[in-house]
Write a structure and sequence with these properties.
five-stranded parallel sheet; about 35% helix; globular; about 240 residues; Rossmann fold
């Protein structure tokens, strides 16, 4: 898949619900949506993840980038287990992520579907028609809910399964749009875009298995992909040790 920069959209006067984990990708997504003129409501999740340090980062990023509001929803995806991020399972370390497209144990079952569904409900109550998330289909860990087909399918679901979507369809127009501006960027491309947008990467956290004070392990998939992105962009990661 070719690397493609996100296209400009007119967000002036419109509200968007932006999924914000506190990681590098979601921070750049929020900054890009703000740059497009959207009034952004950031939505984060305390879902039983072992890397809850990211929530403190999300709060800082939301304030720094200028989100109009930042909400944290609490759900327990750990009740289902099945992921090293929500259960007592080891986080894989030192994997070769260069060409890996398998689905690792850090995959949280249906996470993006759950998150987007909750963002959709919030958007409908806010009379907003735009959702945004920082998924990426070039440099990622093989998660199925980071693919273009998933984004397109959820957008169809949003317009089929909501009152706002049905009423808009009766007028002959789709209502909800799911923005994934980083979808076709490499990690280096995301770093470059975030740098142009003025994102303070020192506020973010990407690690799946951070230390007690939030320090990155430097060995999990997310840490490796982040390090490679900064290296290929020719920039220094402010969190690098």
């Amino acid at each position: 898949m070719q690397e493609i920069e996100p296209q400009d959209v007119s967000g002036a006067g419109r509200t968007a619900v932006v999924l914000l984990s506190g990681g590098l990708d979601s921070a750049v997504t929020l900054a890009w949506m703000r740059h497009q003129g959207f009034r952004c409501v950031a939505l984060s999740f305390d879902y039983g993840q072992r890397h809850r340090h990211e929530l403190a980062c999300a709060e800082q990023v939301a304030a720094a980038v200028g989100a109009a509001d930042h909400r944290v929803a609490r759900i327990d995806l750990g009740a289902f287990g099945g992921s090293a991020l929500t259960a007592d399972l080891p986080v894989p370390k030192d994997r070769d992520v260069s060409h890996s497209q398998d689905i690792p144990i850090t995959y949280v079952p249906a996470r993006n579907a759950v998150f987007l569904t909750m963002a959709l409900g919030l958007a409908e109550t806010l009379d907003a028609r735009d959702l945004a998330l920082g998924v990426n289909a070039l440099d990622y860990s093989g998660y199925p809910d980071c693919r273009p087909d998933f984004i397109r399918a959820f957008e169809r679901l949003a317009n089929l399964g909501t009152r706002a979507g049905v009423e808009a369809a009766e007028r002959g127009e789709p209502w909800f749009r799911v923005h994934a501006p980083l979808l076709r960027l490499s990690k280096a491309g995301i770093v470059r875009l975030g740098t142009r947008l003025g994102v303070d990467f020192a506020l973010t956290s990407s690690c799946y298995d951070p230390g007690p004070h939030g320090q990155a392990c430097a060995r999990c998939d997310a840490c490796q992909l982040r390090a490679r992105g900064f290296a290929e962009a020719g920039l220094r990661d402010p969190l690098a040790r």
